[in-house]
Amino acid sequence: MRLHDTLERGLRDLRPIDGSTLRFYCCGPTVYGPAHIGNFRTFVMQDVFRRTLETGGMRTFHVRNVTDVDDKTIRDSQAAGVPLGEFTAGWLERFHRDCQALNCLPPHVEPGAVEHLPQQIAMIEALVEKGHAYAAEDGSVYFRIESFPEYGSLSHLDTRELSLGKTQQSRANADEYEKDSLADFVLWKARRPEDGPNFWKSPWGEGRPGWHLECSAMIQEYLGSDFDLHSGGVDLVFPHHENEIAQSRCACGGNFARHWFHITHLLVDGGKMSKSVGNLYTLDDLAEKGFTALEVRYVLIGAHYRKPLNFTLESLSGAREALAKLAKGARSLAERAGEGTMLDSVEFGPFESAWEALNDDLNTPGALGGIFTGLREASKLEGVDAARALAGLNRILRALGIELPEEEAAADVPAEIRALADERWQARLGKDWARSDEMRDQLAEMGWAVKDSKEGYELNPI
Predict the structure, then answer these.
(1) Which residues of the chain have a pLDDT value below 70?
(2) Tell me: the pLDDT tens digits for 137-170?
(3) What is the pTM of this model?
(4) Nearest to 375 by CA among 303, 302, 325, 341
(5) What domains sit in the chain, N to C, each tagged with a CATH number?
């Protein structure tokens, strides 16, 4: 596979350091509420990445953390009057349920921040001892950015245009801060009244770790100082991933991640997703509107990971239609394959272009297009040739994580809708186009879409 590297700003061949297993880390969920489709664009694309590697025969070791202590988890658990551990466990269970519905493979290791506090404290001690960190008067500990000249290399910050060093303590002490703030960042946050019972003992007093530190500690624990790839949303490049690089390399040595894989933002109806606007969708929200998680997955992989994806309810309807077409094509191929249906093959046959697209910078829209092209090419194959093509189709669908829907029963169409549709069809046969269009609009107002063909028409609820 050739994959874009954020650090090098170009495509690079992806090969495991040890020659056999590609070891990678993904920044996981902060479990203080339900994950939304913007979060899941990143997790689904990471899943396609892993599936593609494994489909190609490469072994993987996938580590994804859980942020179960930070400003937001503490704030919201306090507001709910629920102990932090119980609060985050409930939301983690919801996250796992959604991942399963989206057909995402579970990571091989899923460490949590709270259970790795000793490793985080040990990393801070190493940074202080080496002169890369210092304790403030209140017991908080900060990383000294000036001690790491390479800071900013991942996000390509021009440090001449930013104020290097300490900023307002309230900003430097925050888990997340604005992109114009190049500040000494917090490693250990001194206990504050608003934290309630959520604090732990350390050499610098009672408190809790900063958000940026947890990933570095868990990466060191499970992947070491040098590993193959690090991934996350593009919003994490700065400051989170810059801070990870700085604290990890200064504390542990090594080169940290060899490759950086970032996924671009998701838009909704052409704008930024926001709870206040009412366009922040969870899987449950979309299920209430009649859409399945697998239809959501199809939309999420429909745009290249380095380009913004514009998510609309209409795109979900399009995904439903596309999946139905794929399922119909697969059934036809299986029927023509006959007894060879269960044939397995390492080749992709007419779906080779789809496989090549996935290995060319994880081009998922190109792969989807290649599947439909392949089905057209395979439409006249019979017997063992059809069986080989079906095996190739199944392999590419597994790489994309697409599960095809079962054949659906015809929609229960009310009698008055059917009568109007029949009347419209007769008008169409009589070439009364104005009347036909008028009744199509009338059916649409009543919640039904008409799709014409040479043989007749189909009615589908809108």
Answers:
(1) 158-182, 276, 340-345, 407-412, 454-455
(2) 999 999 999 999 999 999 987 644 444 444 444 4
(3) 0.85
(4) 325
(5) 14-263 (3.40.50.620), 268-400 (1.20.120.640), 415-461 (no CATH)
